[in-house]
Amino acid sequence: MPNSTRTLRIAMNGVTGRMGFRQHFLRSILPIREQGGVLLDDGTRVQVEPILVGRNEAKLQELCAQYGIAEYSTDATSIIDDASIDIYFDAQVTSRRAEALASAMKAGKHIFTEKPTAETLTEAIELARIAENAGITAGVVHDKLYLPGLVKLKRLVDEGFFGRILSLRGEFGYWVFEGDGQPAQRPSWNYRSEDGGGIIIDMFCHWNYVLEGILGKVETVTAKAATHIPTRWDEEGREYAATADDSAYGIFELENGVVAQINSSWAVRVFRDELVEFQVDGTHGSAVAGLRKCVAQHRSHTPKPVWNPDLPVTEPFRDQWLEVPANADLDNGFKLQWEEFLRDVVAERPHRYGLLSAARGVQLAELGLKSSAEGRRLDVPEITL
Known about the structure:
Residues 152-287 form the GFO/IDH/MocA-like oxidoreductase domain. One of its GO terms (molecular function) is nucleotide binding. By secondary structure, this protein is an alpha/beta fold. 31% of the residues lie in helices and 24% in strands.
């Protein structure tokens, strides 16, 4: 008797946006559908059936026609109330996310969502409470932990390569054009605080789960937010005031004494191998990881440079590091997490990156903004439901 196939109907809200379309629809759900679904250990296949949701009907129709999708809707409420929908996915702007997620969970839907999950910590914690009471599987996108570079970095940590870990230094960002001469490569709402924009709100949620997932929980935060580019131009070429921070400089002290420094900026030009890089230093070795590549230098292979500003540099510092092999064929990080989430839904078990993890990210963003406004270091309290 052939093994069965179970189909999960997924309402995908926000697929007309850049992230929702490229990473979740085009590079995750469509490939899962094309490969015949997700194969479980018992031989069962879990196939996906996306239903596209958004406010722009013309774009939804175009996507359905181009990719062979049978259904779409501009009415998110009716989709959430549809008993045939198994999973609700949200990649909307942050200001509309919490209400939609709450409604979906109360309707008994499993949820998978981008972050931040809410604009405030109070809302984020309430979402975690709703999920717990609803008995559904809730997953939050923690994509960077599935990327090859950070997978390799985590393997080095787990294998004790670093000895006692001392610090992490991270650099993230690139130049986002103002929109007057060249179109901006990020949406204009990102630069308006009244619309939920700001790099601290956006990126500190990421840095929280990266630090938690690789090195340990954050105990204190010291941050400085800045709006380096005060005027930008929107998608219609209209000038507007940038009211949100476009750069953030953070120091995070972790539970195990590790000090992490991460700079985030949409007003910086890139002079590094990848758009984000993290360097971890320990007593026995160091490593630098980007999205895909990771290089390492062990204590036994560490050179002994001598400071001498009177002579030109002769040491090839970059050549003194060895590349860390993948040792596996690593798929798209978003797709990998989708597959893990779908397995959890079928097994009716919690996803390892749930709404409480997301709430800690929102908390760190709130505290980062407060630290910047007050000019002081702040403790990060434990969150309980």
